[in-house]
Specification:
49% strand, Secreted protein, Immunoglobulin-like, 288 residues, CHRD, signal
Length: 288
C-alpha cells in the first residue's frame, strides 16, 4: 500500500509540473491582435443622392485599410476618391489617393502606409489626428462635381454645437441662423444658413467685436461669403483676423461660444453699408 501511494505521489507531482509548464507557456503567448477602428459619415453633396461611411481599420502590420461604403451610386460608374489636407470648408491639396468607388457595389477598399508623396508614413493614430477630409467625385472626367464628402481626424465634429438667430435688417426677407460646431481639434465650423437670398448674389459676412446694440464694432473674423443660390456659408475658424503688422490670435470653439461679438451679413461686396442679416453671438446672445 505504501509503495502504491508513493508511485501515485510521483505521478501527481509530474502532472502538476506539466500543468505548471503549460500555464507558463500560455503566459508567454501574445494575445490575438485587435486593431482599432473608426467610422465617419460621408454625406451627400448637393442633390447627388450618394451617402455612406468611411471606415478606418488598423492592421497588425501597422498599415490601415480604408473602406468607403456608399449608397446611391450608379452601375457602370467609377467614382474617384481622395483624402485632402485641411477641412472641407477650407479646401486643400490631395494627401492620399484612394481606390475609386465601384458604382456597381458602392465599395472602395484601400490599404495604406504612406501618403502620396511616398515619403510620409501614416499610421492609424496619425489618421485619427489628421487635418483632412474625404472627397468622392462624380467620375474621372468630372472631378469638379462632388457626390459625397466628410471631414476626418482632428476636423471631425464632436457633436457639440450652438445656434444663433440672424435677423432681417435692410434686405427684406433675408434671415436665418449661424451654427457653431465643435471639431475634435478644438477649432470651429461656422455654418450660416439664410433664407431669402437670391441666386447670383454673394453676401460677405463677418464676426465683429461687441454687440449689435453697440455696433459698429471692428471685424474680428472674416467668414466665407454666403452663396445667394443656396443661402449657405461654411468657414473653419481657428484664429482671428490678423493685420499687416500683427498675426491673429488662436480662437477655440469654447472661446467663440463665450465671445463678445455679433455677425453681420452684407448685401454685397459693393454695398457693405447695407446689411442683409445680423445677430448677436456668444456672451451677447439672448438665452431662450
Amino acid at each position: 500500500m505504501k509503495i502504491k501511494m508513493k508511485k501515485f505521489g510521483v505521478l501527481l507531482f509530474a502532472f502538476l509540473g506539466l500543468v505548471s509548464c503549460s500555464d507558463d507557456d500560455d503566459a508567454n503567448v501574445d494575445p490575438p491582435f485587435e486593431g482599432q477602428s473608426k467610422s465617419y459619415d460621408l454625406t451627400e453633396v448637393g442633390e447627388s443622392g450618394v451617402s455612406g461611411t468611411a471606415t478606418f481599420d488598423e492592421n497588425e502590420d501597422g498599415s490601415v485599410t480604408i473602406t468607403l461604403d456608399l449608397d446611391g451610386t450608379s452601375e457602370g460608374v467609377m467614382h474617384p476618391a481622395h483624402i485632402h489636407f485641411n477641412s472641407a470648408a477650407e479646401g486643400g491639396e490631395i494627401a492620399l489617393s484612394l481606390e475609386p468607388v465601384d458604382g456597381d457595389t458602392g465599395i472602395s477598399e484601400t490599404t495604406v502606409e504612406m501618403l502620396d508623396d511616398k515619403e510620409t508614413e501614416i499610421s492609424f493614430e496619425d489618421l485619427m489626428d489628421f487635418d483632412g477630409y474625404i472627397n468622392v467625385h462624380a467620375s474621372a472626367d468630372d472631378l469638379e462635381t462632388l457626390v459625397a464628402q466628410t471631414d476626418i481626424g482632428g476636423n471631425a465634429l464632436t457633436g457639440e454645437s450652438v445656434s444663433y438667430d440672424l435677423a432681417e435688417v435692410d434686405v427684406e426677407g433675408v434671415s436665418g441662423t449661424a451654427t457653431f460646431y465643435e471639431r475634435e481639434n478644438g477649432e470651429t465650423l461656422v455654418e450660416l444658413d439664410l433664407e431669402g437670398t437670391t441666386e447670383g448674389n454673394s453676401h460677405p459676412a463677418h464676426i465683429h467685436m461687441g454687440s449689435v446694440e453697440d455696433a459698429p464694432g471692428d471685424i474680428a473674423i472674416t467668414l466665407t461669403s454666403v452663396d445667394g443660390a443656396s443661402g449657405m456659408s461654411f468657414t473653419n475658424v481657428a484664429m482671428t483676423d490678423g493685420t499687416d503688422d500683427e498675426e491673429g490670435t488662436a480662437v477655440s470653439y469654447e472661446d467663440l461660444i463665450a465671445y463678445d461679438g455679433y455677425i453681420n451679413v452684407h448685401a454685397s461686396a459693393d454695398n457693405l453699408a447695407t446689411l442683409a442679416a445680423q445677430g448677436n453671438i456668444g456672451a451677447n446672445a439672448t438665452e431662450e
